[in-house]
Amino acid sequence: MKVKVMCLVLCAMVFASIFCGCGSNKNTEIIGKWVPTTAKTNGETISYSELGVNEDQFGLEFKDSSNCTVTLAGISCDSTYTFNGTSVDLSVNGTAYKLSYDSGVLTMVLDYDNDRIEFSFSKQR
After folding, report:
1. Helix spans in the chain (H)
2. Are 54 and 80 in contact (CB under 8 A)?
3. Cα distances (Å, whole numbers) of residue 90 to 18, 61, 62, 69, 86
4. What is the dihedral of CA 100, 101, 107, 112, to 10 degrees?
5. Does residue 70 have a pLDDT over 90?
6. Average pLDDT over residues 31-56
7. Burial of residue 87, with CB atoms counted within 10 A of its CB: 0-12 exposed, 13-18 middle, 19 or more buried
8. How much of the chain exceeds pLDDT 90, in percent?
């Protein structure tokens, strides 16, 4: 009888450790610092390095906890995000943004004075 109980307890512990270890963080793919690579407007794509703007003036840093830091024009804001595999829903100071995600590239589209500007970001390695 003791052997059966020990076997059941052992099996329960093995299954518990297997299922506890199976959780995955869906945010893993985007966690880290993202830097701008290109800006596209009026059909013209410009390398971010050509703009002459320091790297620390514009960027995204995603943390494991669904929190992130967004830096626009050198001003950093703590924000929140949700990643679903193909897009990132970002909330910055109460304003919602949707970034698309494809093949390791995040794309943010902003409209300034009826001009659409598309920024692409790559994860810094």
Report:
1. 2-20
2. no
3. 33, 12, 10, 10, 13
4. 10
5. yes
6. 88
7. middle
8. 53
C-alpha 122/C-alpha 125 separation (Å) is 9
CA separation, residue 121 to residues 22, 23, 76 (Å): 30, 28, 17
Q: Which amino acid is at 46?
A: I
73-93 confidence digits (pLDDT tens): 899 999 999 999 999 999 999
Residue 49, pLDDT above cutoff 90: no
Average the pLDDT over 38-51 and give the result. 88
- The pairs formed by 76-85 with CB atoms below 8 angstroms and a separation of 24 or more are 83/26, 83/27, 83/29, 83/30, 84/26, 85/26, 85/29
pLDDT recorded at residue 65: 87
Nearest of 7, 69, 78 to residue 33 by alpha carbon: 69
For residue 110 the two structure tokens come to 């902003």
